[in-house]
């Protein structure tokens, strides 16, 4: 480690994450699919916006049956994004602007076209995947899929059938079910070693860490994830010794388990072990866009009707914070490639300022999903593309459409013919774009930039400072770092209550006043005040 490199637990305190879906961000070569050079050409814009950590969805070699979450070679990038050298150039160009780059580590499964899997499907002794060949296949647990190779029997997938689970063993081996190997069997140990090699490779050439896909899925039949936790703790020990500046952020949905397991941070998600992702959904999910039929309908706090409550989120966030203290971070995404954007269904652009005022002044590490900063909307009704559709209403494509840069052809995303784009653009003639919002000082984009600037320049608004909630309805009122009062009123109706302070000087406010012993908040208003 160079003496100036900060350990991940330190630099994450200041992190403002920005998630880039590489196929949809910027296309430099006119093939209709975004690429590394396209991202590089937009780094000045990201630096202007003020984000300091970019997470790229998987960009490894892949047959793209699940948009790249089906990796066929962890050591090379997919040619559609450029070359390995292009990625290194992007990372260096980002670093020179103070931006770290994280990759997406798909730890639990590969593509069925990965040579590890094709070899395993040809060799009955290979243990890198989970194979079963019982006399009576009807006795197999659900989910196993028939072998595509000369090897007889069935393999266990992790997500789609084209994504065979890597074998990290079973927490409860059982000789009667011989595919349930212990976690220290030869195949599971080889896979652990492979994770180190993959991480080592990319960290050694300048990447700053990983978002780890389905991090809780590794060891099978693992009550409380105890063996999966041990596995990650071991990897974190290795990482701390070899790459202490590198961050591991999990897709787990339960920071209270994943941070003690060795992750530096974890995302609140639309799913997860804590009441099925209710913390995040109680903020944003209005049952438009990507809807899992299993979810119980609820009114989100950020809904103009004002029928929600922040209490569900606050309760879970408090219990997470009590557990992890300052050993790691909970990350709060505006959206991601699996669930609806903020602008979705009845949540229109005018409602987003209050949402961002909360998102960027709350102590969770903020993660902005590309395009949310200009209010790009979830585009309904798109056809399935590269595995985007998971259920009748669970279509992820609507959150994956091309970034809207300007008002030229294809919104400046690509010079390809419109029908050749990775996914169609939002057809709305009034769709927002970056150029127009940069030219408009009153735009959402400028507000997001100001909020990021405040957060990164004032530690009181950051991830480490104290948070005291004073009112947990409409409006939500809290004090950060003892000296910043934040008021957000995400409903359309105004709200008023007694002010906890005599004097509050606005730092950034619209539609909220504090004075004469009262807080007065217009509908959809927000305000940050020094007290
Ligand atoms: O997602 C894991 C996952 O289970 C969910 O996000 C999923 O999209 C849905 O909520 C199920 O109801 C990760 C990636 O984020 C996703 O894009 C991949 O498709 C998946 O893993 C497989 O790699």
Question: How would you sum up this structure, described in words?
Answer:
- With 531 residues, the protein is α/β, with parallel strands linked by helices.
- The chain folds into three domains: 3-108 and 186-459, Glycosidases (TIM Barrel, Alpha-Beta Barrel); 115-155, no CATH class; 466-530, Immunoglobulin-like (Sandwich).
- The protein has helices spanning 8-11, 36-41, 43-49, 84-95, 115-120, 186-204, 226-242, 255-258, 278-284, 311-324, 352-359, 434-438, 444-457; strands at residues 17-20, 53-56, 60-61, 73-77, 100-106, 131-132, 145-146, 154-155, 209-213, 247-250, 265-267, 329-333, 365-369, 467-472, 476-480, 484-488, 495-498, 505-515, 518-530.
- It has an eight-stranded parallel β-barrel.
- It is globular.
- The two termini are 41 Å apart.
- The model has no long low-confidence stretch (mean pLDDT 97).
Largest sheet: 8 strands, parallel, barrel
Total of DSSP H or I helical runs spanning 4+ residues: 13
Query: Looking at the structure, what is the overall shape?
Result: globular
- Unreliable parts: none
> How many domains, in number, for the residues?
3
Small-molecule binders: 1-O-alpha-D-glucopyranosyl-D-fructose
Strand arrangement across the biggest beta sheet = 1-2-5-9-10-11-12-13
Overall mean confidence score, pLDDT: 97
Number of strands: 19
Alpha-beta content class: alpha/beta
What is the name of the CATH class of the largest domain?
Answer: Alpha Beta
- What's the CATH superfamily of the largest domain, by name? Glycosidases
Kindly identify the CATH topology of the largest domain: TIM Barrel
Strand content: 15-25%
CA gyration radius, whole angstroms: 23 Å
Spatial separation of the terminal alpha carbons: 41 Å
Helix content: 10-25%
Which architecture of the largest domain does the CATH hierarchy give at level 2?
Alpha-Beta Barrel
């Amino acid at each position: 480690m160079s003496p100036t490199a900060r350990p991940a637990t330190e630099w994450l305190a200041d992190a403002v994450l920005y998630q880039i879906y590489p196929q949809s961000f910027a296309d430099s070569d006119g093939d209709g699919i975004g690429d590394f050079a396209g991202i590089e050409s937009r780094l000045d814009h990201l630096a202007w916006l003020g984000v300091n950590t970019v997470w790229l969805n998987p960009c490894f070699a892949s047959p793209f049956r699940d948009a790249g979450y089906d990796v066929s070679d962890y050591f090379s990038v997919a040619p559609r994004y450029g070359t390995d050298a292009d990625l290194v150039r992007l990372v260096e160009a980002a670093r020179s602007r103070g931006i770290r780059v994280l990759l997406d580590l798909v730890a639990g499964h590969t593509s069925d076209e990965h040579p590890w899997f094709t070899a395993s499907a040809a060799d009955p002794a290979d243990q890198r995947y989970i194979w079963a060949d019982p006399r009576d296949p009807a006795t197999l647990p659900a989910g196993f899929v028939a072998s595509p190779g000369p090897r007889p029997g069935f393999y266990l997938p992790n997500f789609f059938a084209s994504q065979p689970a890597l074998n990290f063993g079973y927490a409860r081996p059982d000789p009667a079910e011989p595919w349930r190997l212990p976690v220290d069997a030869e195949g599971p140990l080889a896979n652990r070693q492979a994770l180190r090699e993959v991480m080592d490779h990319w960290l050694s050439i300048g990447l700053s860490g990983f978002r780890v896909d389905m991090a809780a899925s590794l060891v099978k039949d693992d009550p409380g994830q105890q063996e999966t936790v041990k596995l990650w703790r071991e990897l974190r020990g290795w990482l701390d010794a070899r790459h202490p500046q590198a961050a591991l952020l999990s897709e787990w949905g339960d920071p209270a388990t994943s941070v003690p397991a060795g992750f530096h941070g974890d995302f609140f998600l639309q799913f997860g072990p804590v009441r099925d992702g209710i913390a995040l959904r109680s903020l944003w999910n209005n049952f438009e866009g990507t809807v899992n039929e299993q979810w119980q309908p609820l009114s989100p706090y950020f809904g103009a009707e004002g029928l929600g409550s922040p209490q569900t989120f606050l309760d879970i966030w408090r219990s997470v914070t009590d557990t992890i203290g300052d050993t790691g971070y909970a990350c709060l995404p505006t959206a991601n490639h699996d669930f609806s954007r903020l602008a979705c269904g009845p949540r229109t652009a005018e409602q987003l300022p209050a949402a961002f005022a909360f998102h960027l002044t709350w102590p969770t590490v903020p993660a902005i999903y590309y395009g949310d900063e200009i209010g790009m909307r979830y585009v309904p009704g798109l056809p399935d593309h590269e595995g985007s559709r998971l259920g009748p209403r669970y279509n992820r494509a609507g959150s994956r459409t091309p970034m809207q840069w300007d008002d030229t052809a294809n919104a400046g995303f690509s010079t390809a013919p419109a029908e050749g784009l990775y996914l169609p653009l939002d057809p709305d003639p009034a769709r927002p774009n970056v150029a127009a919002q940069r030219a408009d000082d009153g735009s959402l984009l400028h507000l997001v930039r100001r909020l990021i600037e405040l957060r990164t320049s004032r530690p009181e608004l950051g991830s480490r400072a104290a948070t005291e909630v004073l009112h947990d309805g409409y409006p939500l009122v809290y004090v950060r770092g003892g000296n910043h009062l934040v008021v957000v009123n995400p409903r359309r109706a105004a709200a008023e209550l007694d002010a906890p302070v005599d004097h509050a000087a606005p730092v950034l406010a619209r539609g909220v006043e504090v004075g004469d012993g009262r807080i007065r908040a217009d509908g959809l208003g927000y305000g940050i005040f020094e007290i």
